[in-house]
Structures are given as structure tokens and as C-alpha cells.
Write a sequence for this structure.
């Protein structure tokens, strides 16, 4: 598993890298000293895991996460315990106080491995790996209610923690599936990752407007308004131009 350490303290990065030598399954591929550098290295290296400090000069670790298009697994490493609740609200795997104790680090790595095992098992049981096209039908189950829906009828997928909300007709069921996993299976000619929280059906776009900070605002046939992040706006314009 490839990891990046993001922390403004050089000694803290060095100490964590040393501790991680006890875990050969974790390969530290890079380091970053601030949020901007972290975003750039996550985009280029595409790690599976980041060890992330919260209080850094400029942007905080939470600020950084809000700007990522795709979020790896996150283990926070910080000297402050008052951010613990917020850390778990953004689905962090664990929250380690500095100086990091080897036993707590081992516990966090174990959580990571258990989570990976469950996810792989669930993928094998419920999904194959083929690309889904617009005319394919998918089975959607939410509690006692079930639907067999053509993908072309789904206008939007929205991330809700570990779940995704599926928008079709007047229905918005939740499925236990991450947006990243969905993106891997959806045909990019028809479905577009607008931002960290949304995948939109390109055929369901009714209106496009310029938006804040160089982004775009998409209005879908169901009335939903979805912001396209600045990074994804560049890709969107390239895809949609002649």
C-alpha cells in the first residue's frame, strides 16, 4: 500500500517514516510539508493512504481534504485532540496523537487491513469489474425497496459518507458503495466526476453556467444544481468541445 506523509514538521515526518519501517505492507512513496504540496503530490502519486497533520501553515488538513477530487484513506497525526470528532466526520480511518505511539500506529494499520479485506470481499460478492454502459440495468436496493434501473435514467450519484445516493425519477436511495468505486465502473463518455461529492450523467444536463472561482454550475433535469470544481472544469470543457 502506497502512502504519503503530510506534515509541516520535518522531524515528525522522519519519526513517522521510521516507525512505518516496521510495516512492510506500507510503502512511503513521498512526503509533503504543507497542504498545497500535499494536494500536488496526491494528484501525481495517487497514494492509497495519507498520514495527515491538521494544523499546518496556510491551509489545514481539513481544508486540504475538501479540495481533493479523490480522497485516499486518511490517518490523522496531530498534537491536538480537539479535532477528533471532526476527523471522524470526514471518514478518517484513525486519529493518532503526537508523539505517535508504535502500538497506536499498529492498531491503525490493522484497521486499514481489516477495512481492505471487507471491501475486497464485498466487491467480489456484489460487483464485477466490467465497465457499465448507459443501456445497462443495475439493481438498486435500499432497505426493503428495490429497483432495476437503466443507467441512462440515473442523473446523479452523490457521496454520503461511505454510501452513495442514487438520483433517478423521484427516488434517491442510498447504496453502500463509494463514489470512487462507482467512478471506476461507469462509462466516462456518459458519467462525469464533477467534484469530490458528485458524479453526473452528461445526458441529464439541462443548463451550464459560469460559477465561482473559475468553475461551472450544472443544472440537471431533476432540478439539482451541481458545482464543477475548478480542476474538473478544465477536463469538462475539453470533453465537451469539438
Amino acid at each position: 500500500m502506497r502512502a504519503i506523509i503530510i506534515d509541516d514538521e520535518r522531524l515528525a515526518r522522519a519519526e513517522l517514516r521510521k516507525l512505518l519501517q516496521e510495516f512492510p505492507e506500507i510503502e512511503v512513496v513521498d512526503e509533503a510539508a504543507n497542504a498545497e504540496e500535499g494536494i500536488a503530490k496526491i494528484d501525481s502519486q495517487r497514494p492509497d493512504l495519507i498520514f495527515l497533520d491538521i494544523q499546518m501553515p496556510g491551509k489545514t488538513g481539513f481544508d486540504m481534504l475538501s479540495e481533493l477530487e479523490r480522497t485516499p484513506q486518511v490517518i490523522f497525526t496531530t498534537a491536538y485532540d480537539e479535532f477528533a470528532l471532526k476527523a471522524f466526520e470526514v471518514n478518517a480511518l484513525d486519529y493518532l496523537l503526537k508523539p505517535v505511539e508504535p502500538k497506536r500506529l499498529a492498531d491503525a494499520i490493522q484497521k486499514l487491513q481489516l477495512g481492505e479485506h471487507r471491501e475486497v470481499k464485498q466487491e467480489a460478492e456484489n460487483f464485477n469489474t466490467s465497465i457499465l454502459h448507459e443501456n445497462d440495468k443495475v439493481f438498486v436496493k435500499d432497505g426493503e425497496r428495490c429497483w432495476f434501473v437503466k443507467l441512462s435514467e440515473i442523473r446523479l450519484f452523490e457521496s454520503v459518507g461511505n454510501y452513495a445516493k442514487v438520483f433517478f425519477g423521484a427516488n434517491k436511495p442510498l447504496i453502500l458503495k463509494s463514489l470512487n468505486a462507482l467512478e471506476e465502473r461507469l462509462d466516462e463518455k456518459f458519467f462525469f466526476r464533477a467534484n469530490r461529492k458528485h458524479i453526473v450523467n452528461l445526458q441529464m444536463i439541462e443548463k451550464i453556467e459560469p460559477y465561482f472561482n473559475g468553475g461551472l454550475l450544472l443544472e440537471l433535469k431533476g432540478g439539482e444544481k451541481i458545482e464543477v470544481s475548478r480542476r474538473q472544469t478544465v477536463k469538462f470543457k475539453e470533453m465537451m468541445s469539438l
User: Anything to note?
Assistant: The mean pLDDT is 87. The domain at 2-126 is CATH 3.40.50.2300 (Rossmann fold). The first strand starts at residue 2 and ends at 6.
